Amino acid sequence: MLAALRRPRVILWTVAAVVALGFMVALEIAARHYGVPGPITNQAREVIFAPKSGPLLYASMGLMMVVLTWRERFIAIGVAVGIDVAFFLVRWAVDAKMMFGNGALWVIIACAVIAVTRRTGNERMLLLKGVGLGLLLVAGRKTGDTWLLITSKTRPLVLDQYVATADHALGNPSWVVGRIIRATGPVGSHVLDWVYIQLAVAAVAVAVYQLRNVAKERRFPTHHLVRTFLVIGLLGPGIYMIFPVVGPIFAYGGDGGQWAVANLWPDTPPPMNLPQHMPFNEITPRNCMPSLHTAWATVIFIHSRRGPRVLRYGGTFWLIATLGATLGFGYHYGADIVAGVVFTLTIESALRAYDRGWERSNVQLVAHGAVVFTALLVSYRYLPAQMADYPWLFGPLIILSMVSVIYGYMRLNRVWEPKAVPALKPEPQPELV
Predict the structure, then answer these.
(1) pLDDT at residue 23, as a whole number
(2) Cis peptide before 266, with omega less than 30 degrees from 0?
(3) Which residue, among 156, 154, 172, 153, has the nearest Cα to 164 in the 3D structure?
(4) Beta strands in 208-257 (DSSP E)
(5) What mean pLDDT comes out for the span 56-66?
(6) Cis amide bond preceding 269, omega within 30
(7) 348 pLDDT band (50/70/90 cuts)?
(8) CA-CA-CA-CA torsion for 227, 230, 232, 238, nearest 10 degrees?
(9) Phi, psi dihedrals of residue 152, rounded to the nearest 5°
(10) What is the Cα–Cα distance from 321 to 192, expressed in whole angstroms?
């Protein structure tokens, strides 16, 4: 036992667990400082009270069930549905808020208890990993909500005027797509809104396909979608604090109220004045730069490429619809869409290099992505007026910088995941007489 605890991987996971717990405790304390419950309290409440998102809890349970046998999966689903029916009847009787999902959370917690009390060795670790994946998806949502609150409280000044000015080099895509979405009517808006909200469910669908053999092989693959998802969620919000931006619907639209520059979105592009810091309210999250919705949708697209045709089509649709929603609803500028794609491919490349070895080509790609991402942020901050004055120069440069990272990733991806070579059929040999 002592020798096992000294293994580097065990030490790494132990340190990661301690850091994650400390981070959640720190967020809980910070949220309490601002007079609202933190992620730990919100998650504990959902054991009894109506959850915020039932589909997310069932998606988390689905992710956890990749380690279970088919018999155990049917039992888990039946127990979860039964518990939710009981909660539904009680809430209906007392006229409380209606939402499902408690049953899924109870099943995840029950599996954690079973792993500690009834399993041993590799089976215990496998089940705990499955429970950890499910709880990480839920905890990520809760910690994200608290972190967005902190960004709104600690960053009173935003940089939207800088990004909006730089966005002239790309032709103000948020304004263009916003008018297109409005022309489609309520049907297009409802579809894109559903896609935007249920991003985690799409991610779980791809992850479940990638992890479909875990129950049979009794081990996880070296690289899968969940890893990249978690790293993006860990690193991305830190950029919010460095580059606080609220988005065009708030800075230039009606949702910004008295804090908006003017009510211009999506009909009138923003003026090309000298940009400056602008104060904003303490409610709206500063979660625009980079676009993590674009980042996560890009991960779904990348990891769906190795799946069946329906999964590939679904990943493509989710990426296109997410881009349409982020721009068309005024949540993001075109500049932070580009930054989100570069950010994602850099992280994905780093994780692949970590698994396969830091060869020269891998290091070059990660370094190139990091340099391009940094150059984009620096340009948006210190060269927005020049970018707006010379769109014929900076527009193609922005797109080419993103394309260079995409090309580098695709080139190395052919090395990381070579196509299967069909087996050669033996030629018929003449019979010897």
Answers:
(1) 77
(2) yes
(3) 172
(4) none
(5) 88
(6) no
(7) very high
(8) -140
(9) -70, -30
(10) 6
